[in-house]
């Protein structure tokens, strides 16, 4: 099994920074849902929006913990990074579709589609670097 010494230190640090950020976002979204939603452009969320945001917060906490638990194993860390990037792509696509289909919420949808896309690109760059390390 690879050790941390065999993992590109910059890639490992970036993957762990993403994991900690994901946990922080998850805790904020799960524990302080309405203020977090307001920062994301959802000024007056209904009960369904709050519930879905809490589900997403729990998902982000779990993904972050999964990545942290994989910190010493390059293959597992690469897998955790891939899972996070795929989730971020899904978020970007979902918000992008919402921007097209729901003009009343377009501002928040565009903002969050861009955040999801940026997170996916960041994850992909870390994944590429983890894949090159030996």
Kindly describe this structure:
- The protein is mostly helical and 134 residues long.
- The protein has one domain.
- The chain is 81% helix and 0% strand.
- The chain has five helices and no strands.
- The longest helix is centred in the middle third of the chain and has 28 residues.
- It is globular.
- The model has no long low-confidence stretch (mean pLDDT 93).
Short description:
By secondary structure, the chain is mainly α. The chain is built from five helices and no strands. Helix content is 81%, strand content 0%.
Topology at a glance:
Blueprint: H1 9-31, H2 33-39, H3 47-69, H4 74-101, H5 106-132
Helix pairs in contact: 1-2, 1-3, 1-5, 3-4, 4-5
């Amino acid at each position: 099994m690879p050790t941390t010494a065999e993992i590109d230190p910059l890639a490992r640090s970036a993957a762990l920074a993403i994991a900690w950020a994901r946990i922080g976002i998850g805790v904020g979204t799960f524990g302080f849902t309405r203020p977090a939603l307001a920062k994301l452009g959802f000024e007056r969320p209904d009960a369904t929006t709050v519930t879905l945001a809490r589900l997403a917060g729990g998902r982000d906490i779990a993904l972050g913990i999964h990545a942290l638990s994989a910190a010493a194993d390059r293959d597992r860390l690469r897998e955790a990074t891939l899972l996070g990037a795929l989730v971020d792509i899904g978020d970007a696509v979902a918000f992008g579709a919402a921007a097209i289909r729901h003009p009343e919420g377009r501002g928040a949808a565009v903002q969050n589609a861009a955040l999801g896309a940026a997170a996916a690109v960041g994850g992909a760059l870390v994944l590429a670097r983890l894949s090159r390390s030996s």
